[in-house]
Amino acid sequence: MIDENAIAAAEDQAEDISPPPTPEGYSEPYQFEYPKLPLLLTGVVLTVVFTIIYGVLLVLLQGTDVLPVVFDTATEGEITLVLDFSRVAIPMLFAFLTVAVFHELLHGLVFQRYGYDVNYGVYWRFGAVYAAVFHQFHTREHNLRVGIAPLAIITVVCLPLLAVPQPLIATVAFFVLVLNTAGSVGDAYALWRFYRMPQGTVFYDINIAHMYVFEPERAVEGA
Under a CB-based contact definition with an 8 Å cutoff, are residues 81 and 95 in contact? Predict the structure, then answer.
């Protein structure tokens, strides 16, 4: 089991600008980092892939009239597909704001469910919204549930909305699904890394750019 007393003692001695003392029974910490460029490129690829997947599903459920394109036949003998921005801009903007807010809110709510104090904010350097647990030890097991929550919950809620006989709702749901699924690439990477760490591992965030990992010196049984 995790030694909660050792964790609490180390947390009490922590300073704001450096990792806390290593709790008894844990190895020296290392910094957890995201491979930014590979994740960015993967996110772009996933955006294309899931646009196709959810787009096909949307057409199957709603028919081709839901597509934001019009056929321009002004020139004799030529047919041109023209994107109708009036049917795209508002749903896409609403979907973007919805994903930005609710994705992180769900992270935060699960953290709060486990008793952590959550900080919400915007990381202006990357234009990203975040929900984070600063200056508190948080466990691998809790982070696995925090990480999967937005992808699972938003997908479950929005998939049925693709079948709603209201094109605006269905289109917004489509954009939300694409943006949330592709935008979860960082969460998926973290979940993969966390899952491979030993049970009992704990994390400590100093700020949005510095997370430290403390692994137990030997395998810990139980969560």
Answer: no
- The backbone torsions φ and ψ at residue 11, rounded to the nearest 5 degrees and listed phi first, read -65, -40
> Across-strand partners of 84?
none
Query: Of 15-24, 47-56, 91-100, 161-170, which range is least confident?
Result: 15-24
Q: Are strands 202-207 and 80-83 parallel, antiparallel or unpaired?
A: unpaired
| Domain residue extents for the chain | 4-214
Mean pLDDT of the region 160-182: 92
- CB 123, CB 130: distance < 8 Å: yes
Place of tokens 């910490």: 29
- Give 87-152 as a 3 state SS string: HCHHHHHHHHHHHHHHHHHHHHHHHHHCCCCCEEEEECCCCEEEEECECCEEEHHHHHHHHHHHHH
Residue 142 vs residues 14, 105, 145, 179, 219: alpha-carbon distances, Å? 21, 16, 5, 25, 17
**Tokens representing residue 161 in the block:** 């909305």
Per-residue model confidence as pLDDT tens digits over 32-56? 999 999 999 999 999 999 999 998 8
Q: At CA 125, angle to CA 120 and CA 130, rounded to 5? A: 20
The per-residue pLDDT for range 63-109, each reduced to its tens digit, is 877 765 544 445 555 545 455 566 677 888 899 999 999 999 999 99
Distance CA 25, CA 216 (A): 6
